Structures are given as C-alpha cells and as structure tokens.
Amino acid sequence: MATKWNLDPAHSEITFKVKHMMISSIKGNFTNFTAEIETEDDTFANAKTTATIQTDSISTNNTDRDNHLKSAEFFNAEANPTITFESSALNNEVTGNLTLNGVTKPVVLDVDFGGINVDPWGNTKAGFSFEGKINRTDFGLNWNAALEAGGVLVSDEVKIAGELQFVKQA
Predict the structure, then answer these.
(1) Angle (CA) 134 137 143, round 5°
(2) What's the alpha-carbon Rg for the chain, to the nearest Å?
(3) For the chain, what is the mean pLDDT?
(4) What pLDDT digit, counting tens, does each position of 68-114 carry?
(5) CA distance 130 to 148
C-alpha cells in the first residue's frame, strides 16, 4: 500500500543562485510551493514526487529585479503561473521532468536523504536536501546583455537547491 508524504512548508525552502556580471552571484528563493511524495516504503527508492512552485513567488530581496524576473523577458509569470517537477524514482539523485516557462525538460538533481524522525507532536517526518544546475536558456529564459569588458550580465547556468521536510499522512 502506498504512503503519501506532504510537504511541511514551514520547514522547507527552494533557492537559486546565478552569476551576475561574471563576478558575483545573486541569490533568491520561491516563497510559495507545494510538494508530495508517494512511496511503497520508507526507503523512498521508487517514490513518485511532484512539486509545484508559484512563479510569482520569486524573491531576490529587490522589488525591481523581482518584477523583471516575473516579466515576459524571464519567467512570464502571468502566462506561466507555475513551475512543476515530476519524477518516479528517488535515491541519491532524482531524475524528473521540470516544466519552466512553458518548456519541459529532464533534469537530474543530487539528493541527500536526511532520515525520518518523529516531531514533538507525534508527526512522522522525512527530510531531503537537493541541489543541481540547469541552463536557463534550455527553458527559453534568454534575456541577457553583453558587458563592455566581455561576458554577459546574467549567466546561463542557474544553481538550484532545496531543503524539504515532508509529513507522513495517516
């Protein structure tokens, strides 16, 4: 019998980092997302994972930059309100389909299973950390500007990471 695990959003985060002007990185996160795992056992080996991120919940702690990222030049949040990820196996890495900006591509993320524990209120929880890289232009996020000294304003490579905690459903 399959067991369902739902995301504990209060103890979870999804972040990203991208090089700016080839000299430093800008970090950001998404503040509104959901995820669930369905698995046959507590090893999570054949787990089915689904996640949905609200595109307009992007935050880099800079309103002008956030509005630019939500615009048609980047995520086009109005036309593409969600980013989704679906996979059918979970172990030291997870391969799944990422849909971003209306484009679906396979991605591979490194995963670290933190284990299972019971919180003070009797809830069984499982923790995972993940990280990986995507090429934003693979998803049609092509906006950029050339720099006078060479290079570009925004790197094509985006590092993504997360700390996710799930609650086992009865």
Answers:
(1) 125
(2) 17
(3) 90
(4) 889 988 889 999 999 999 997 787 889 999 999 999 999 999 999 99
(5) 36
Task: Measure Cα distances from 39 to 4, 43, 106, 164 in Å.
Answer: 7, 8, 21, 16
Rounded CA separation 40/109 (Å): 21
More confident residue, 153 or 3: 3
Separation CA 20–CA 35 (nearest Å):
30
Q: What are phi and psi of 92, to 5 degrees?
A: -75, -15
Which residue type does 52 have?
T
Q: Tokens 């389909």 map to which residue?
A: 97
| Rounded-to-integer distance, Cα 18 and Cα 159, Å | 6
Q: Can you read off the two tokens belonging to residue 80?
A: 């593409």
DSSP conformational letter for 10: G
Which residue in the block uniquely carries the two structure tokens 């800008």?
26
DSSP 56: G
Cα-Cα-Cα-Cα dihedral sign, residues 63, 72, 98, 160: negative
The whole-angstrom separation of Cα 122 and Cα 42 is 17
Structural contact between residues 122 and 104, judged by C-beta atoms closer than 8 angstroms? no
Tokens standing for residue 55: 């595109």
One-letter amino acid for residue 170 of the chain:
A
